[in-house]
Design goal:
Blueprint (H helix, E strand, L loop, with lengths): L7 H16 L6 H8 L3 H7 L3 H29 L5 H13 L2 H12 L6 H22 L9 H17 L7 H12 L1
Organism: Marinomonas primoryensis
Keywords: DNA-binding, Transcription, Transcription regulation
GO molecular function: DNA-binding transcription factor activity; transcription cis-regulatory region binding
């Protein structure tokens, strides 16, 4: 393999991530991955014996990417001067819901649960833990009780994540900020 070039396995995973994001799990076939990745079917099957294994590998890759992106978002927020807790909290949620691949991951897990293995659910827990970790880390910078975490997360999920998943308008940031303020005071 040439230096700087991704391996065929990594290339297949990247292409699969794109297809799963655009089409979902049900509508993405191994044949489509083979065509889009410009590799042979035996190459795909030698690395990923089933579509579920390919999806789990893609989800792991998406989780790693999400971790990097949330780490960067936290660094930016932590370096910003005089940023309120609520502003940073909403910013982290906005980064999370702003990626089509993350929304697709939720849609796949929610819509295709019956096709997933316990290992898939474990990977999804790790995926969601990326957001939870970033939010928890942000909370440590402020005098906000960790007892409020669940309520803050639930309101934010309903105001930002669920509308994004349903292709609906999200709650206005000012309105959400007001609702979150009530929870922490």
């Amino acid at each position: 393999m040439a230096r700087g070039r991704p391996s065929k396995k990594a290339h297949i995973v990247e292409v699969a991530c794109e297809l799963f994001t655009k089409q979902g799990y049900q509508s993405t076939s191994i044949d489509q991955v083979v065509l889009a990745a410009a590799v042979s079917k035996p190459t795909v099957y030698s690395n990923f014996p089933t579509k579920l294994v390919l999806w789990e590998t893609a989800l792991f890759s998406l989780t790693e990417r999400a971790q990097e992106e949330m780490d960067i978002a936290l660094l930016k927020l932590n370096s910003a001067k005089e940023l309120s807790f609520i502003t940073g909290w909403i910013a982290l949620w906005s980064v999370w819901v702003g990626k089509a691949e993350r929304l697709a991951s939720y849609r796949i897990l929610l819509g295709e649960q019956h096709k997933m293995a316990p290992s898939t659910f474990a990977l999804f827990v790790e995926f969601e833990a990326v957001l939870e970790s970033a939010l928890s880390e942000w909370m440590t910078e402020f005098p906000v009780s960790t007892m409020n975490f669940f309520a803050l997360k639930a309101v934010s999920k309903e105001a930002l994540l669920m509308p994004a998943l349903l292709n609906q308008a999200m709650m206005e940031e000012d309105e959400l900020a007001q609702q979150l303020e009530v929870l922490i005071h």
